C-alpha cells in the first residue's frame, strides 16, 4: 500500500512538472509573439534602431521560438536600412539562409543578397556575385542530386554511366563534389577507377578530397596503393595528404609506424601534426618510444610541444620519466613548461613522483 502511494505521488508530481513545463513553453511562445509584433510595428514605423534592438532581443531570448527565423530576417533588414556595410548585411542574410533553411523569408533574403552583391560588385568585390549565382539553379540542382542519389542506391552499371555523365558535364565545384559523393555507394570497378582519376586529375581540391573519402568506402578494392601515392607526393595539397594519412591509419598497413615517423620528421607541418595526433591516439609502448625518440631529434618547436602534450595520455611510468627529463633539461622554456603541465594532467603515481623530483631540483638550484 505504501509503495503504491509513493508511486502515485511520484506520478502526480511528474504530471505537475510536465504541466508546468508546458505552461512555461506557452508563456515563452506568447512572449516571443508579442516581441515580434512590437518589432514588426517598429518596422512599419521605420524605427530601424528600435526594431533591430527588439528583434535581436527576441532571437537571443527565444532562439527556439517559431518567430526566431522571422526576427532574424527583419534584424538583417533593419541593419540594411541603418546603412551598415553591405558585406556585413550580406553575411547576416547568408547566416539566416544557413540557420533557417525552410524559412518563408528565404526568397526575400536571397533577393536582398543579389541586390547587395551587385552593389559590392560595383565596388570591385566580385566574389559576392559568384556566391549568389547559385540561387537560380539551387532547386533544380537539389532535385537532380536527389535523382542521382537514388540511382546510386540502385548501383548498377547503367546508373553509374548516368551519374558520371552528369559529373563530367557539371562545372560548379560544389555541385561536382556532391555528385562525386554519390559514387561512394557504388561498388563497381568502374566507379572505383573514376574516383581514382578524380583524386589524381581533377583540378578541384574539394573534389579530390571528396573522391578520396568515397574511395575508402569501396571495401572490395585495395585502396592502400592510391593512399600511399597521394601521401608520398610532396607536390600534393597538404590537406589531401593529411586525409590520406588518416585513412591509412584506419587500414593499419604494414610499416604504419615508420610512415608516421617519417611524416613527423618531414617538411609538411600539417602532415606532421596529423601523424603526431595519430601516434598519440595509439597510447601503446611502441608509439611512446617513437614519440620520445622524436623529441630528441625534431627541431620544430610546435611539433615538440604537441608531442609533449600527447604524451600525457600514456599512463605508464616511462612516459612520466620522459616528461620529467624534458621538464628538467629541454633548451626551450615553452617545451619545459608544457612537459610540466602534462605531468600534472597525467594524475598517475609516477607523474606525481616526477613532479616532486622536479620541485626538489628547483629547491637545490639544479
Describe the structure.
- With 366 residues, this protein is mainly alpha-helical.
- Among the domains are: 25-125, Serine Threonine Protein Phosphatase 5, Tetratricopeptide repeat (Alpha Horseshoe); 222-364, Leucine-rich Repeat Variant (Alpha Horseshoe), CATH 1.25.10.
- It has 20 helices and no strands.
- The longest helix has 43 residues, at 2-44.
- The model is unreliable at 1-24 (pLDDT under 50).
Features:
366 residues; mainly alpha; Serine Threonine Protein Phosphatase 5, Tetratricopeptide repeat; Leucine-rich Repeat Variant; 77% helix; 0% strand
Topology, please?
Elements: H1 2-44, H2 48-61, H3 68-81, H4 86-99, H5 106-122, H6 127-132, H7 138-154, H8 157-169, H9 173-182, H10 189-201, H11 205-215, H12 224-232, H13 238-251, H14 256-265, H15 269-282, H16 285-295, H17 301-310, H18 317-329, H19 333-346, H20 349-364
Helix pairs in contact: 1-2, 1-3, 2-3, 3-4, 4-5, 7-8, 7-9, 8-9, 9-11, 10-11, 11-13, 12-13, 13-15, 14-15, 14-16, 15-16, 15-17, 17-19, 18-19, 18-20, 19-20
Short description:
With 366 residues, the protein is mostly helical. The chain has helices at 2-44, 48-61, 68-81, 86-99, 106-122, 127-132, 138-154, 157-169, 173-182, 189-201, 205-215, 224-232, 238-251, 256-265, 269-282, 285-295, 301-310, 317-329, 333-346, 349-364. Among the domains are: 25-125, Serine Threonine Protein Phosphatase 5, Tetratricopeptide repeat (Alpha Horseshoe), CATH 1.25.40; 222-364, Leucine-rich Repeat Variant (Alpha Horseshoe), CATH 1.25.10.10.
Q: Give the overall average pLDDT.
A: 86
Major beta sheet summary: none
Helix content: over 70%
pLDDT below 50 for ≥5 consecutive residues: which ranges? Answer: 1-24
CATH class of the domain at 222-364: Mainly Alpha
Q: Order of helices and strands, N to C?
A: HHHHHHHHHHHHHHHHHHHH
The quaternary structure here is: single chain
Number of strands: 0
Percent of residues in beta strands? Answer: under 5%
| Global geometry | extended
Look at the helices and sheets and give the structural class: mainly alpha
CATH topology label of the domain at 222-364:
Leucine-rich Repeat Variant
Tell me what the CATH architecture of the domain at 222-364 is: Alpha Horseshoe
